[in-house]
């Protein structure tokens, strides 16, 4: 009998034999168990795989939570440092601002005193610093003190602004203060003069429109005073 004929007979008879012959069933199971896992073993392997995945997920979750906790702690430390830095910056800014304001007042007063001494000694004039009270608020829009420098020579009056620096707003303010003084004392100033080493370009333009003479240093003021 040829091999192919045997194969055909086995294919025809095997299903019925396997279904009714327990020995054959056991034989086939033993043969196939070497290459394929049975149902129980497959389920066990699947359960182990799921358990491993669950454990890995829990481990990753714990690691993530730990990293998140550390990140939050770092963020809290950083926020505390930033708040302290902001507080220090505010403190230093306030201190520097106060020192700058004080320095500005001191330097401007020193400049005024020095220029007053030069003008009185070399140009035979008298420099007087006066303080008036504007109770009607004509200059600032509210009641306040008005401070001016007056240069007096041979009975003539020059209203002067002696400052370390002059801005556009300063020039307008000086003109309002001068007109206030003239109205208050019913006396016309011969000249309005600004003496300062630093005069803004826009302030000079305002001075030209208002008829205010500008001198950047005391030597320039000399010829104007000598003409009186």
Provide a compact summary of the structure:
The protein is an alpha/beta fold. Helices cover 66% and strands 15% of the residues. It has 6 helices and 5 strands.
What does this structure look like?
By secondary structure, the protein is of the alpha/beta class. The chain has a five-stranded mixed β-sheet with strand order 1-2-3-4-5. Helix 4 (168-185) links the parallel strand 3 (156-162) and strand 4. It contains six helices and five strands; from the N terminus they run αααβββαβαβα. The termini are far apart. Among the domains are: 3-36, no CATH class; 123-226, Trna Endonuclease, Chain: A, domain 1 (3-Layer(aba) Sandwich), CATH 3.40.1350.10. The chain is 66% helix and 15% strand.
């Amino acid at each position: 009998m040829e091999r192919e004929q045997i194969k055909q007979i086995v294919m025809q008879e095997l299903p019925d034999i396997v279904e009714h012959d327990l020995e054959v069933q056991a034989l086939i199971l033993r043969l196939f168990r070497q290459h394929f896992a049975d149902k129980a073993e497959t389920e066990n392997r699947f359960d182990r795989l799921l358990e491993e995945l669950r454990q890995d997920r829990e481990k990753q979750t714990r690691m993530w939570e730990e990293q998140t906790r550390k990140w939050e702690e770092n963020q809290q430390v950083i926020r505390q440092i930033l708040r302290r830095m902001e507080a220090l910056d505010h403190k230093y800014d306030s201190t520097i601002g106060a020192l700058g304001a004080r320095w500005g007042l001191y330097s401007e007063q020193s400049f005024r005193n020095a220029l007053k001494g030069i003008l009185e000694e070399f140009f035979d004039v008298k420099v007087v610093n006066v303080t008036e009270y504007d109770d009607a608020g004509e200059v600032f829009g509210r009641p306040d003190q008005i401070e001016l420098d007056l240069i007096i020579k041979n009975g003539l009056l020059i209203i002067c602004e002696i400052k370390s620096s002059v801005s556009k707003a300063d020039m307008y303010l000086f003109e309002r203060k001068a007109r206030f003084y003239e109205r208050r004392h019913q006396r016309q100033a011969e000249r309005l003069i600004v003496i300062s080493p630093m005069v803004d370009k826009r302030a000079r333009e305002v001075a030209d429109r208002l008829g205010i003479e500008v001198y950047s240093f005391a030597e320039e003021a000399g010829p104007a005073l000598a003409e009186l």
